Amino acid sequence: MIKNLFFSVVFFVLLSLVFVSCKKEKPSVSGPITLEAPIKESKVYKLFSGYSDKDMFEASGIKYMGDHFYVVFDNTYKVASIQQSLVPYGVANILSGGSISSSNYEGVAYDYDGSPNIYVVAENQSHNGQYSPRIYKYDLTLHEGDSAWAPYSFTSSFKNKGFEGLTFYHRNNKDYLLGLSEANGNIIVMEANGSDWKYISTMPFPQSMAMNDYSDIDISETGAIAVTSQESSQLWIGKLSGTDWQLDGEGTLYTFPTGDENGNVGKGSNVLYGNVEGVSFISDSQVVICSDKASSDQPYYQTFKEQSISIFSIPK
Hints:
Radius of gyration: 23 Å
Oligomer: single chain
CATH topology: Tachylectin-2, Chain A
Largest sheet: 5 strands, mixed
CATH architecture: 5 Propeller
CATH class: Mainly Beta
Order of helices and strands: HEEEEEEEEEEEEEEEEEEEEEEE
Helix content: under 10%
Strand content: 35-45%
Structural class: mainly beta
């Protein structure tokens, strides 16, 4: 009887260990992954000769191509071409275009198919009783060419939340622009139609990865998609389906690093990157972002990263 009791106790102990082990191995839902400190970073004004911290560079969109960053600003019609090295006052860093006044520019895309062009989108303009984004075409010398209306409209209640980002994609011998809706993260697919654009589809942003707002979009030639959020200080990276205009899976959410009240990354829990307005892939393992000017109601420590360009590594 004692022998039977001994084996019964051993059996129940082993069973309990197996149960506890299974509980520990049960997968749990993880939160966003925090990015490390930027590899390289610079205030925009430091990249051009003749400017100071008194000059405003409210960066709103960025695109990497050919060792340069093309940057647009919502407070000027000028477009920037900046060396990837972010050399201070670099002679190859140029500003070209129109006047320094409110442009409403919010995104920039690079057309790499055939003769290369740059497309810049103004978030919303009054058009036929509603509000539609306006798409401007530039050549690589940053001279403005044609423009066209985006085939998508917003009501007056969303006149300040139109296209917050723009990216180019070439698929099945056709050229497309993808516009990002600031309010809900919807991705609007538009196909080139002569000098105009026609609506093709809308890709909803994954609700399980929802952010507080949506500030820019980029897509790589391999179909990787990046979307940023200014209010959430986050970056989402997903994948485009290889067969249709759908997202392949939920993707991965990243949080930009926090820091102390003096803007030092990794030394506190304050949100430093509170004005992320642009994003572009450099490679599958690196992105570059640009930041807008902090508003007067934001904490002072967020001014350390405002109006800047920052390069981050993406964890594997």
